[in-house]
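Board notes (copied after class):
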Amino acid sequence: MFRGLYNWTMRLAARPDAVRAMAVVSFSESSFFPIPPDVVLVPLVLAQRAKAFLIAAVCTVSSVLGGLAGYAIGYYLLETVGLWLLQAYGLEEGLAQYRTAYAEWGLWIILIKGLTPIPYKLVTIASGAAQFDLLVFVLASIVTRGARFYLLAALLWRFGEPIRAFIEKWLDVLGVVFVVALVGGFVAVRYVF
């Protein structure tokens, strides 16, 4: 089921413009796009293991910049674009509770949710809507997104071939797990807040 998509992604990952494409996905995911950058980061590092840490750096920087765009959506465009995005993900009802949680736990929300399958765009938009301290938001985003992407890149750099063999052997199962985790992240946010 996922084999054709995997093969296509691996071919694209070997292209010279693949890092730029990952940066676009990483930026977009932090503000509006539903697919996490890990989908591009993993095959990219597997295809270009010598550049693993450069790839993680680009992914981190573009994710934080996208997070600033998400923050701006929540801060300046909440009543238009922000609400539309929250409605698209079925989360507009929990916004008031999220704002209250941010008043007390904002830093921890950013740090924890930035590492999980819970969509980061929701964290960025909510941070702006709650008018969370921008400097703390940026620093927490650098820490949490950097930890996630550098850890993933380090594992792939160190254990690339065994991980690649594992992925290729269990591709369909991993694909289903990924889809469940992605959907589960959206569902978790809906019922947690």
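Comment from the instructor: The mean pLDDT is 83. Residues 134-169 form the longest helix (36 residues).
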